[in-house]
Amino acid sequence: MGKIIDGKAVSAAVKDEVRAEVAQLAAKYGRVPCLCVIIVGENPASQVYVRNKVKAAEYTGMGSRLIELPASVSEEELLAQIAALNADAAVDGILVQLPLPRHISEQKVIEAIAPGKDVDGFHPSNVAGLWLGKDCVLPCTPAGVMRLLDSIGIDLSGKDAVVVGRSNIVGKPVAKLLMDRHATVTMAHSRTVNLAEVTRKADVLVVAVGKAGLITGDMVKPGAVVIDVGMNRDSEGHLCGDVDFASCQPVAGWITPVPGGVGPMTIAMLMKNTVRCFLAGR
Ligand code: GUN
To answer: 223 alpha carbon to ligand 1 midpoint, in Å?
Structure first.
């Protein structure tokens, strides 16, 4: 029976680490890091995520600002808001919650954020930094996945890692981070022929597709580490991942639950990134 990787506990430890760091920064610099979160419109899931980000910032002792803009805000107004925050020395990190309304270009918005304040690690210069192996801000969810893997003490060198999903936010960066740890990485996605055959080779299986129940027990190698990045709602409205936990846990060596796995890690790593941006700005 696979052991559970407790994302809540690991994220609590990370947030406590940050909390201690913030207290030291306050003493040293006379100011705490400040995270500014922008939400556009009233997507209920986004509202929950954003609230949790602000709550986490408060827990660590950081400053936080929440800017709520109506769905009707123009791209120009949003870009002007970001420009003002870029210029504001009291703001260390800027996060614009995605998705954005269709009339606003997400890419333009991402590129408008000063790379030094880009706590999501989505700006092209930070993406380039990741792929070139520079010391830069890492996207929060992939960084959280790596932290979970570290929490179980796995040596990734030479391991077969399979990443299902090729998004810019999770799949692609997590593959790079696994390569950096010397794993042999295979990317699988919606056009992969015979997905089960590919996933069954994985010592480490990271799933980030957004399709409930995509991975079933017969697709998992016995003893594998299964990391579920999915965030879906089942027919009853309950949060569930991409991995069918009931059939996969008996086969896996380790497995993350949803909720309580990767989700809380994203927010914890965001706190780390905010401290990082604060320090880079000193
Ligand atoms: N929407 C879903 N995940 C994320 C994330 O990591 N950052 C932002 N800004 N928006 C998101």
So the answer is: 31
Q: What is the pLDDT of residues 76-120, one digit of tens each?
A: 999 999 999 999 999 999 999 999 999 999 999 999 999 999 999
Give Cα separations from 153 to 146, 147, 225, 230 (angstroms). Answer: 11, 10, 11, 23
CATH number for the domain spanning 165: value is 3.40.50.720
Q: How many domains does the chain have?
A: 2
Cβ atoms 200, 220 nearer than 8 A: yes
The whole-model pTM stands at 0.97
Q: Which of 39, 48, 85, 97 to mutate to test the pocket of ligand 1 (most atoms within 8 A of CB)?
A: 97
- Cβ atoms within 10 Å of 114's Cβ, excluding its own: 17
